[in-house]
Structure formats: C-alpha cells, structure tokens
Design a protein that fits this description.
mainly alpha, two-stranded antiparallel ribbon, 54% helix, globular
Length: 282
C-alpha cells in the first residue's frame, strides 16, 4: 500500500505540473475547479509512516516541493480575498467556480436551478457559485446559501470565506516550511513558517467568535461572521494553526473550546447517534 500511496501523491504532483492545481476531477471539464489543497498533508502523512526510510522521505519531499509551492501560488493568485475586520485587512482564501455556465456533469440540474433568473450576469454568477460549491466538496449545503433557510438558488459560495479552507492552507504553509527545512533551504523555510503564523493570526482575528467560543465562516456580502455552526469549523485544531497571538493547542484555549455551546450540542448529538447504532447491532 505504501507504493500505491506514493504513486497517488506523484499523480497529483503531475496534475499540478500540468495545470497548476489538482482539478476537481481528472477530466478536461474539471480543470477550472480545484480540489481543496490537502496534498501537503498527504505528503506529511506518507513520510511520517513508520516504514519509510529517511532517505526515501527526503527524496519524495524533493519531488513534491516545486508542485506544492505551485499549488500554493494558485490559491494565492486565483482564490484570494481581502477581508476587513476591525479596521485591518487580511488576505484569506475562498472557493471559486471558474465557470459562467452549467457544470457539464450536472448540466440539467444547474440549468433548472437558474431557470427563473432572467438577468444574464446574475445567472452567470449563479453558475459560478454552483461551481464554487462543488469545488469546496460541500456540494451542496445550506452553508453556501444566502441564509440557512434560503432557497437553493440563493447560493453564493464566492462571497463566503470558509474557516476550513484557510485552516488547510495554514497547514500547507507550515508543512512547506518544514519540508524546506529538511532540504536545507532555511530562507524559504522561514518564509513559509511566517506565512503560516500570519494566517493563523488572521484565522483568529476574522473567524474566532468569543461569545460562541468557536470559529465561524466570514460573509463578505454582510461584512461579518455567519451565524451557523458546521463541523468543519473545528478545522484549525486539525491543522494546528498556531499563531503569534493565540496558541490554540494550549490547555486554557482547549478548555474554552470544550465549553463551547457548539461542542456541547455535538456531544449530545453524538450520544443519540451512538445509542441508535448500539440498538441496531446489539
């Protein structure tokens, strides 16, 4: 399986070399949409496997680093947005569709969704937002609608800055810095480590909600945080987004997070799900 995993990683590297990012699917009509940037974490998981010799790990890092930097550049040039929070600007990232027509794989569904939109520009934007929702992997969720109770054709993915995407990019920047350190390139290692710290600080400044003790997506249209909680909002923990202002892995911060109403609700839901599973199999 390690050989298979290595081959998959190098296949993704080839796709980045070819078109600049990992497409939403390995077909021509998916080229304008990306997958979320998990490749750096895939490389990290592979090289940390107990069976990997140090030299093989270093060889893979050297093979993957140019592609990882190229992928990072794609997100920073094609998927960046400036978010203003408390008078300060932060460069963060969001999903985009890259299209102004129905998705080829769901042409009929998209065409019907836009059937009542008469304005050409609004219809093209709707198609772009549908593509962006598909790029996110959350296709589809009330997370991208105008409000949680709005109809499906209110989708506006391109105006919502997601917590999880920026946490994934924070991990990507941190890991690229670590990979450069392995190769002996201290200057690039320091640059990406600094980018990761800056993003972690931005995640706290833009997404953190002190009252709810949880992160929230940011709404560019309304210039504020979205109300609803989604499980993906805990992604900064998964990505270990440690900044210069707040250490989210500290005991004090974790205690605050564990007392969040969102976490308590998740715990209660988990108990009911566990009860149902037990009743089915026991």
């Amino acid at each position: 399986m390690t050989e298979t995993a290595r081959g998959m990683i190098l296949n993704f590297v080839h796709l980045i070399d070819l078109i600049g990012h990992i497409p939403n699917g390995n077909r021509v009509y998916y080229e304008k949409r990306s997958q979320p940037p998990f490749l750096a974490m895939m490389v990290d998981a592979y090289i940390k496997h107990p069976s990997m010799p140090a030299e093989d790990s270093r060889r893979l890092i050297l093979e993957c680093l140019p592609a990882l930097v190229k992928e990072h550049n794609f997100w920073m040039t094609e998927r960046a947005a400036v978010v203003t929070r408390d008078g300060k600007d932060y460069v963060l990232n969001l999903y985009k569709g890259g299209i102004t027509e129905p998705r080829p794989e769901s042409y009929r569904e998209d065409f019907e969704t836009a059937a009542n939109v008469t304005d050409d520009k609004q219809r093209e934007q709707l198609y772009a937002d549908l593509g962006a929702g598909a790029e996110s992997g959350w296709d589809f969720s009330s997370r991208w609608m105008d409000t949680a109770t709005s109809p499906f054709n209110s989708i506006r993915t391109e105006t919502i800055v997601p917590v999880d995407l920026n946490a994934i990019l924070c991990a990507q920047e941190r890991l690229i810095g670590e990979f450069y350190q392995t190769t002996g390139n201290s200057a690039e290692s320091d640059r990406f480590a600094n980018l990761a710290r800056q993003r972690a600080d931005a995640i706290q400044a833009v997404f953190w909600n002190e009252e709810k003790a949880m992160w929230r997506d940011f709404d560019l249209k309304r210039s504020g945080q979205r109300e609803e909680f989604y499980l993906s909002h805990i992604a900064p923990l998964f990505a270990r987004c440690r900044g210069s202002t707040v250490d989210i892995m500290s005991t004090s911060f974790m205690n605050k997070l564990l007392n969040s109403p969102d976490v308590i609700v998740l715990f209660v839901i988990g108990l009911f799900v566990l009860r149902d599973l037990v009743s089915q199999f026991c």
